[in-house]
Amino acid sequence: MPIFKISGTKLKKLNSLPLDKEKNLQALVEANLIEVLDLLFLATEYTTTFGGRIDTLAVDTNGSPVIIEYKRNKNDNVINQSLSYLKWLKSQKPGFFEKLMIDKLGKDKADKIKLDWHNPRVICVAENYSKFDIDTAEVVPLRIELMKYRYYEDGIFALEPVNVPEMAATHAPMAAPTGDTKSSQDSDTSNSLDNLLVKASTDIKEMFAELRERIVAIDDSVTENPTGSYVGYRMGNNFAEIHIGKNQLKIHLRPIEFVDPRGLVEKIPDGYNWTMDRRVYLKSPSELEYVVGLIEQSYKNVI
Which of 136, 137, 185, 266 has the highest count of CB atoms within 10 angstroms of its CB? Predict the structure, then answer.
């Protein structure tokens, strides 16, 4: 998609420029992980036990481990390389990752992130992808997300998803290091939408169904991601996270200033270290239209 700069009443198309080296791209993304991908940085060029180096290791705000690999050319085999690193990660015990989180984030912050070891993510960042890359990412039963970057004159950098897995619940969970298959099955079940709706009243289930329909209608690229505790909606980054209660829906939104004449949006105290640190409660169908408007404002923060 072309990018234009506004100058008075004129639009000037910005030219796309190459980044000189792959390392420049990596350094730029790593220095701005929370802004561009909603991730917390843990390590760069992390050496695995089989000798490879993971470009970037991170953790998302839901506690999922994240592997990021960068390539400048569409012919580079970035997906196969990423899958190899994911295989290595799955063979490890979660203790090493928990230690990495504590070492980098500090114990207080790390303790507030519940490690979701069963749902790792792989993010590939490249200027372009081949059709084979995209097809592979869509059929492999793992969380592979392809991000395409563009660097423009005037210092403009853009990062957008090429494909995002539709639902994490449909992907194979990471095997438990103890070989306990039951824990993997339990994790998969806990991430299902049906499980999140069990405690909700009939009215709340109906209200969630309508809200869900309205959210996915905002943009064709919106994806739904049920986790163990909420349902996330994302466009590259999450813009809404719905926690389903018995008699209400609690919705976490992006950390922006909302146009909110009714004053429904609350700021979560800083001590909780939530990235999505605004929340609103939906208790009645009469509030749904207004809340959808707030969610749309949050959505605009990630596009």
Answer: 137
- 191 is written with which tokens? 């991430």
Q: How many angstroms separate the Cα of 161 from the Cα of each of 194, 214, 236? A: 27, 21, 6
pLDDT, tens only, 246-273: 999 999 999 999 999 999 999 988 776 6
Q: What pLDDT, on the 0 to 100 scale, is given for residue 65?
A: 94
Is 204 within the bounds of a domain?
A: yes
Maximum Cα–Cα distance for the chain, whole Å?
64
What's 101's domain CATH number? 3.40.1350.10
Task: Give phi and psi for 151, each to the nearest 5.
Answer: -120, 125
The torsion defined by the Cα of 97, 100, 105 and 107, in degrees rounded to 10, comes to: 80
- Same domain? For 17 and 124 the reply is yes
Domain that holds residue 295: 192-300
According to DSSP, residue 302 is labeled: T
